[in-house]
Structures are given as C-alpha cells and as structure tokens.
Amino acid sequence: MPFIDADSIFPITHPDGTVSRTTIFLKNVVNHPRMEIGDYTYFTHYGKLSETEEILAPYLFRGSREKLIIGKFVQIARGSYFITSSANHPMWGVTTFPFRIFRPETFGYNDLPVKDTVVGNDVWIGHDAVVMPGVNIGAGAIVAAGSVVTRNVPAYAIVGGNPAAVIRMRFEDDVIAKLLQIAWWDWPIEKIEANIPALERGDLSTLSIL
C-alpha cells in the first residue's frame, strides 16, 4: 500500500505520532461545484474544515460562472488564497460600487467577463501569496511568499513580488520540455514512490528512461 494515502484528509503524521490537523488534502475536503482539485494537493490553514473553501477562494460562489482548477501534487501554504472573477466590480460607470449584489434577484454581473483560474501540477504557492482572477500557473512553478500573481506564470518559473514577475527559470528550456513530456504526476503512485530519489535529485537521465 502506498505510504501517501490519496484518500486521507490529514496526510501528515509527525515522528512522535501526532497528526497534523492544519494540513489537508484538498480533494477530500472540498465539495464545491466550481472547484476541481487534483490528487495529493494540499493546503495548510488554521480554519475549520468546513471553512476551507471560503478561505481558499472567498469570492468563488456556488453560482459563479468561473472555475478554480488546481492540478495534482500542488502545495499551497498558509495564508495563500485565490481571488476569482466573481470578486470583480464593474468599472465602466462613474462608480465601482456593486449595487446588484445586494438583491437576490440582481445578484451577480453576467455582463462582466470571467475566466477560469488554473494551477498546473506540482506547483508550490508560498506563504501569504494571492492569485488574481483568470491566472494560469504552469506546472512546476514556484510562487514566492507574499507574491501577488496578476498574470500567467510559465511552467517551471520562479516568480515573486507585487505584481509577481519571473525571477528565474528552474531549468533550461529543453529540460522543461522533457519534464512536461514525462509528466511524472500522472504516473501510478507506486511508480512515483519507487522513483522518489530520482525525482528529488532532479536526475533527468534516470527519469527519461522510466
């Protein structure tokens, strides 16, 4: 049996046997019609389990038109969250006050453009990062703590700042292309666990023949 249980809610047990109650596998907690979460993606927060969806994406309502799509093996640190398109205010008039949201019969702005927010596989989102509406974060990217991500992030880029900008790429272009082709996150978990040393070392010569 794999030592990483995809069906666990609390996947971390400390060496003294204490189960961490602040880090959760999102897929096993989230039940939101506008969220799609991949296996082994975790989020750390101090809220109740029932508050997870609202903490993660406070403006993504069940009747929203956009989606929040998060891939597999994504790591989301405490304090990070997503501002999705439903948080936008109208900016075409003389005021941005969202009058329509205060009546159920007019709630929402169907004339505002919406775009899904998409996080690729194996992305690390650092402490207190904010991801803005419609952003696409490529696989293997790292978002530095405290960043405000306002535009798309290339695969295997390290970004930081407000607004977040590319600090550097993690690998050369040819290596990135190979990693995206290998797509280790789609392997069976037994194969992933058998190859953890190669994954941790970045041993592409070994991974490329698997």
Structure explained in plain terms:
The chain is an alpha/beta fold and 210 residues long. The protein folds into 2 domains: 23-170, UDP N-Acetylglucosamine Acyltransferase, domain 1 (3 Solenoid), CATH 2.160.10.10; 173-210, no CATH class. Helix content is 15%, strand content 19%. The protein has helices at 52-56, 173-182, 189-194, 196-201, 204-207, and strands at 23-25, 35-37, 42-44, 68-70, 75-76, 81-82, 117-119, 124-125, 130-131, 136-137, 142-143, 148-149, 157-161, 164-169. A 7-stranded mixed beta sheet has the order 1-3-5-8-11-13-14, with no helix packed on it. The longest helix has 10 residues, at 173-182. The protein starts with 22 loop residues before the first strand and ends with a helix. The mean pLDDT is 93.
Major β-sheet, in short? Answer: 7 strands, mixed
Task: State the total count of DSSP E strands.
Answer: 14
How would you sum up the global shape?
A: globular
Radius of gyration: 19 Å
Q: Helical segment tally? A: 5
Write the element-wise H/E pattern from the N-terminal end onward.
EEEHEEEEEEEEEEEHHHH
What are the low-pLDDT stretches, counting only 5+ consecutive residues below 50? none
Give me the side-by-side strand order of the main sheet. 1-3-5-8-11-13-14
Name the structural class: alpha/beta
Question: Which architecture of the largest domain does the CATH hierarchy give at level 2?
Answer: 3 Solenoid
Q: Please, what is the CATH homologous superfamily of the largest domain?
A: Hexapeptide repeat proteins
